[in-house]
Predict the structure.
Amino acid sequence: MTTRNSTFFNYDDLTWDAVADLPRNTPLVLPLGSDYNFGLLADQLNFPPRIGILPAFPFGWRGSGLEVPDVLFWKYITNLLDSLRDDGFSHVYCLAPQGIDPQGTSLANTDSILRQPHRVQYQEVRHLPQESEKGKVILIPIGHTEQHGFHLPLSVDTIIIDAIANGTVAYPHPTSEEPNISISATRSFSLPVMPYGVSTHRASFAGTMNAGGRAFEDFWVAVIDVLVAKGFDRFYFMSGHGGNMSFLVNIVKYAGERHRRIFCATAFLHTSGRIGAEALSQYRTSAIGGMGHAGELETSYLLHLRPDLCQMERVVDETDFVATPDYYMDWIEGGSLVANPPWDDDTKTGAYGAGSHATAEKGRLWLEAAIKEKADHVEQIHEQHERREKRRNAGFGLWGKFK
């Protein structure tokens, strides 16, 4: 899109080396929500030659329809903007609806906030599931914006987990009363996908964002607080990015401690449980190490979902991970050791794996398996919650004394 003398581009469509090559005075803008006037934005920035638009942050600010405390929201945003500054970019902005005032929060430089009248704002925006969704599992898909080698865009994790979440909501399943008859969809509702997670290896390759582990945990616990207060009691954090996982485990534990009558769960990534692992084994052609990151699996997904964003002529297979029996990298990681060495030790291009083995057909098959796996998890969450509530209501154990 071009407005007068300014051309807009999607930041997350780029590869990391394309981000590394951008002039450091290129304005980069992170919008809160969507539907802003880009002509006005170009005017606000004095019509620079190019303006990069980051993925929209879907909710969290006052008026978004799913609000968390200001200090928690703005810390998340501050960490994301600082990721860009750490990469050397000097013109970094958050684009917000008119009336947003982050004064008194962690945002030190409020000059980095651009404000506009917003076509979809305040009472018209509804990210909260409505009354009719109570009793469903609330899916919370979280991707990320990070490097994926020379051949894939920064948006890989977000594209994949968004497709899986949407597929899970629509997945048909049998009713318990009539096991041979399928109804239209799982008992689930998906929040908008979050395109920003945690990368503790952010400095290794350009383009990678980082919400920060503590800010990430605080934000998502606050989201659960809001939803529980509205009467929702079943939640499933679905991650498309491995760096989110240890923090999501903490979030689930905090949420369960704070809200004793909910069931909040997560799982290690996707396509990795008993259904997904079987599908990986059935269709993969790379050896162990070929699916760590931007390898056979994620590249196959993108070839199926967004082939226009794949640059297969630029694939570089890298499988020379410093592996030992209890520490190695593949999609389903192995070994008992947990560590976080610099990515620079193991990859020159940002890829851990064999992207050259990827095909769109494998991506289609693995997406089907991932959706089936997540739909199965939804039903298990329902069963867990319903059976536990039955015990509680019957006064099982200490529930007979303490409510």
